[in-house]
Fold this sequence. Notes:
heterodimer; A: mainly alpha; two-stranded parallel sheet; 8 helices; globular; B: 73% helix; 1% strand; elongated
Amino acid sequence: MRTGASGSEPDGExxxxxxxxxxxxxxxxxxxxxxxxxxxxxxxxxxxxxxRIRRTPSALLAGLIIAYRTVISPLYGQVCSYYxxxxxxxxEAVSVxxxxxxxxxxxxxxxxxxxxxxxxVDHVPPARRxxxxxxxxxxxxxxxxxxxxxxxxxxxxxxx
Amino acid sequence: xxFFDTLLMPFTWAVSWLLSKFHQLLTLFSDDAEWAASGWxxxxxxxxxxxxxxxxxxxxFVRQIKSQRGMQxxxxxxxxxxxxxxGKKDPVSRQAMAQEQQALFRKHKVNxxxxxxxxxxxxxxxxxxxxxxxxxxxxxxxxxxxxxxxPAEVQSFDASSxxxxxxxxxxxxxxxxxxxxxxVVLLTSLMIITMVLTQFFTQKQLMSKNMxxxxxxxxFAQTQKIMLYMLxxxxxxxxxNFPVGVLxxxxxxxxxxxxxxxxxxxxxxxxxxxxxxxxxxxxxAKGLTPINEKPQAxxxxxxxxxxxxxxxxxxxxxxxxxxx
Lengths: 160, 324
């Protein structure tokens, strides 16, 4: 909120603060997800602040999903035909999109997760939310691990 | 009508309608009145029900076969993936591996859960039949009818018997009855043994003949092995509780599976399997060209250009060369 006072010259204070966009986690295989992009615009900074009305239901639901993931989910083992699993998807969707967009996304995902569906990698659509570096929900990092490059290139190296 | 009746209504109705129609048809063709009144017409109706259900399930079976094939074909790639992440047990690597594996499944249109779908899809029919046979013993339904069955048909079904054993009799109660009903015990035991044998044979044949050599090692083969010994156990535990009518269904459906599998293995075997070699030998004897020659050649050609994506990733790796 205080940034309003130094609105004309925000660079002096906020240049130190590095922001992570949700979209920064969507990188091709071999690249490291979660590297900060260019500094956010004022519009993005404004979007970042979720009011209490938006934050509370999201946090409550996220808490429920986390409880499910720690208590009930391990009993089943890996049963989802998608990556990330439905609960991981739901947790990320609710944390980055909020309840209004996250819940329909999750319900749609659960409906798609059946033996007739094709399965595969299905990430949450990127949200416009940004976080100060290090304070993004950990589920995002869990769901977007760095994919090491294949070793197929290694033999070619030795040949040289 | 309880909650479960309402829940099962669509299935019990469909099953009873089919049974009723088949029974009417069979009665029409029965010259002998005694035969018409016996349980054989009902037993045959159940077998015809199996045929209808299994014909409906053929597309599902085709998908299952395709999924199984895909699963076997991608085994080398799965093993490569396992080698890539060998020794990396940290959560991040495990997540990365899970993601790559799912991408692989998707690429080859494989769904590991497709394997047991035909069995699951038959479950509502099993349960409906089981439920119906139980209901028919109750006084209320003898006057009301059940599902699409008229009161007369319910009475006829309930009173029907083969070899003197009622269609609603089952192993456990007959075994525990005071004068043990040995006829029921004998017939149900025979049917359970038949079920177990057909299942065991089907699975064994699949494993010994229709799996490629790479698929015979690794996790997929392990799962198949578990199926080989677990399913007969399920049949025994379920079988002793199920009435003869349900056992007829189950045995008939197992025979269907066995025949279906035999046909597939004989005419459309998995690439790289024992059955494929046998088919090619038979084809050679007739002077025909072996199957699957072309697809393999095409696959080899397709795999070669994958070295292309060196483009972007090659730069940083040059430093490592000093060591080797």
